[in-house]
Design a protein that fits this description.
The complex is a heterotrimer. By secondary structure, chain B is mainly α. Chain B has helices spanning about 1-20, 45-75, 85-110, 115-145, 150-185, 190-220, 225-235. Helix content of chain C is about 60%, strand content about 0%. The chains are: A alpha+beta, B mainly alpha, C mainly alpha. At the B-C interface, helix 1, helix 2 and helix 5 of B face helix 5, helix 6, helix 7, helix 8 and helix 15 of C.
Chain lengths: ~280, ~240, ~600
Amino acid sequence: MHVVLVLVVVAVGSVLFHFLSPWWWTPIASNWQYIDDTIIITFWITGVVFVAVLLFMAYCVWRFRHREGHRAAFEPENRRLETGLTVITGLGVAAMLAPGLFVWNHFITVPPDASAIEIVGQQWQWSFRLPGQDGKLGRTRVDSIADDNPLGLDRNDPDGRDDVVLQGEDLHLPIGKPIKVLLRSTDVLHDFYVPEFRAKMDILPGSSTYFWLTPTRTGTFDILCAELCGTGHPYMRGSVVVEEQVAYDAWLDGQQRRMLAQQDGTTRQKGEVKAQQ
Amino acid sequence: MTIVVAFLVLVIGIAAWWLSTQRIMSKPWLEIGVIDEPPGAGPPAAAKIGLCVFLAVAGVLFALSISAYSMRLQAADWWPLPAPRLLWFNTGLLILASATLEWTKAQSRHASLDGVRFGLVGAGVFTLAFVVGQLVVWRELVEEGYFLASNPANAFFYLMTGLHGLHVMGGLVALARVTLRAFSADEVGVERGKLRLGVELCAIYWHFLLVVWLVLFALIAGWAGDFFEICRQALS
Amino acid sequence: MVDVPLGVAGVPPAEVEDVELYHPKSWVTHYVFSQDAKIIAVQYSVTALSIGLVALMLSWLMRLQLAFPGALSFIDADAYYQLITMHGMMMVVYVLTALFLGGFGNYLIPLMLGARDMVFPYANMLSFWFYLLAVVVLFASFAVPGGPTGAGWTLYPPQSITAGTPGLAWGIVMMLVSLMIFIVGFTMGGLNYVVTVLQGRTRGMTLMRMPLTVWGIFTASVMALLAFPALFVGAVMMLFDRLLGTSFFMPEIIEQGARLPYGGGSPILFQHLFWFFGHPEVYIVALPAFGIVSDLISVHARRNIFGYRMMVWAIVAIGALSFVVWAHHMYVSGMNPYFGFFFATTTLIIAIPTAIKVYNWVLTLWRGDIHLTTPMLFALAFIVTFVNGGLTGLFLGNVVVDVPLSDTMFVVAHFHMVMGVAPILVIFGAIYHWYPKVTGRLLSVPLGQFHFWVTFLGAYLIFFPMHYLGLMGVPRRYYEMGETAIYPPSAHDLNIFITVMALLVGAAQLAFVFNLIWSLRHGRGAGGNPWRACSLEWQTSATPPPHGNFGKELPIVYRWAYDYNVPGAPEDFIPQNQPPLAGEIASRAP
């Protein structure tokens, strides 16, 4: 009767693996504890069903195995049993779906006080854009993209004059402030994925997508790309640093000054080029 | 994707209606013995059922293209191309072909072999003229600078007329076979039943192609855009 | 309810329609360009199983790369993405779809329904040759410059047709063309399966007397006919984009610094089209498996399938519902977020009929007389893996839970468990079950047991732990997992363990292949009905059945396909074509 034994071992072993194995999600660093809670609810409900079905199967295989003279029962259906099971299943599904939809509603409703940042995916690097003092991100156009304008900022848009563009640098975020992340791509699909934040979203060329989060834990987190974007997909990495407001302000200030210096530099360079001509 | 879902709901509705006539609530373990089909006309010929199933498949194909078209239509940079006047003429040709086949069907019932031959050839000529007409429309548009790749509306126009044209040409192959059979058939025999079935199948297929074409034409001519707009406003 | 005339006396024999039959004359028309559904079924099955072996070997290479990054010098990132793409596409379309519908569908539909053959044998033959042509085109893409496409089996544009993805020059074109040929071929086959069920049933075979296998394959064929056009349209549009420069799916794009001439297209449109096909495709594979496993369990547990009517309704309900759940593959695709509410709800609703099916399988075991034959073992293992994979589907279908898990190894583990391992276990079980009908000989039991235990336990050990890699945050489609602070070193060990298991399971398939070939000559003689089953395919006059399936007369059906252990019956099964026994009508009446 090794079949019975194996069925029991699979059921019990899977549960033990779940609780004892060292592989589990990383400690959360955003406000999406709700998502983790929904996953835990789902784990409980599905775990109970899994174990129940397997153990019942094991029991049946043991109890009703073929022996001489044993005959099976002839029972085409049992409406009450089937209806009962259907209702219980319906309740279980509802118990998972209701919190899921509730949290989803939360997930897609961006709080009004969220500050916007922009993340741009390009094969195969991450770039970031933060609004300057005015708190507004300027318009962009794909056709404006050039070597000195990698994100395609519209130079005529006053909102974009003071935008801070970060390329090949870490993204910094202040702790405890809701952030609306606007996502943009200039070539193919990408997906901004920081496992600690739980939230993620695909990035589409040709249109803009978004999600929001509030960082809740300081530290440096790795950014991964989660949507196949070509050969360099696994190497499309970056870092996001969550820090206290004071440190963040100091960093932002430094970045803004760098931007201004850079803009002066380019203007001067252009002037020189003109002068030479 | 609303359009294709609506089409599927229709197909599934027909399937559900058919299933409901098949006693799916019965308890088969209680019924011992031969169960004969309910009295009445026997089931239709396999080829006819096959054609209807195929039309559902082709219908999904066109519904999907129209769905994609309507999704794209909503974007701001949509410049529809002008519907050439020749399309009206082509539409007329297809209507004529369809009507001719309907007439041929009646002829085949009245056992008029000459009528059937005449009708089949006529429908074939009208349909060929339609295909040529569509090609002329393509050439005109290209000469006026409406190239396939120059904007999405053009791409959709060529794609949808092309898909429809391919289906028409597939139908012409079947029509040619039926026509050959009509000319080789004599006044008696098993062949007549097959011929009648062939004519009937062609007629069904042509009516389908005509309906699809009318819908596509409405889209191309731009009326459907207004229709979608009304739907959207009604929904929001 | 309709009053049905039930009678015994005066039943005329089914008509003999031998004149209509096209009997093969030569070896070529018998075995190569055959119009006999049974031969076509074998052609389909052998081709699909061979592709399965190739796809299995591709997965070995992928696993070796994941466990020992860089150890195999010929697998660079490009090659890795080509491997995953070809593995996925081959397994989903060219193996599972073709095997269940083209293989089992062709063999079982006419036999189980008491038909002489499919209704359109010529189209049926063409269907196989189109399939073979599609396969040839697909495999030819290994030989073209640049190799096959590496866009992932989902072929998402713009990536699939822009630089940075291998196979841009030829591979993607060959892939799309191959899919289009496959779809055309399948449509011819699918029309046959559907119309044969509608039209070709023998006398007395009402819909509610059909075995669940036929119900599953029938519903799946209808779904495939309605779903494949979406892939066809998507493939045509992408070919236009790739070859003619249209912009159906292509927005303004900068490709490695250069502005491409595309503009105005929508990548998400392709995703809608793809998943409008792709989700029903899951059930196109699952429903035949559901049907077959129901019959395996019923035969080998010597008990009627529990709740037959519920099982039929559930198959139909799942088939219909599966057309309105497609966007659950796109929760984080950037589509309108409000769609999430609708699609999460429909997705979780579909869990209910699916759960009913599971309960009924288990309840069939309950109070049964369980013979632990090789097919039964595979059926039991199917329930385990299917329940596991189905339950993780509740994670991914519940929109907000999908957010952290999408595009991770959790997804990979889920769909391999539910539409890889589970249906393939059914395929094995079905082959062990019907091989005696196809060849007249039984497959070796010791080899079968060995094959079963290694495959089942090995596959479970591959995919169960893999969920936890995903939970930890390892994305799918990574050439190498790489170093990230959140992955403990033990994660790499787990990767190695999974690879070792994959090699083992793959190697065990050799035992199966050997068994198939060896038993052809040396297997124990099976007789006509070795499992003592009720359905019609076991009641043929000869085994293997000749062209035309049944002898001079077609069988007449007097009962449903599950009369096992009927109280008062002399044997523990009553074949479907057995006229009512003395006093049976009275004792069965409600």
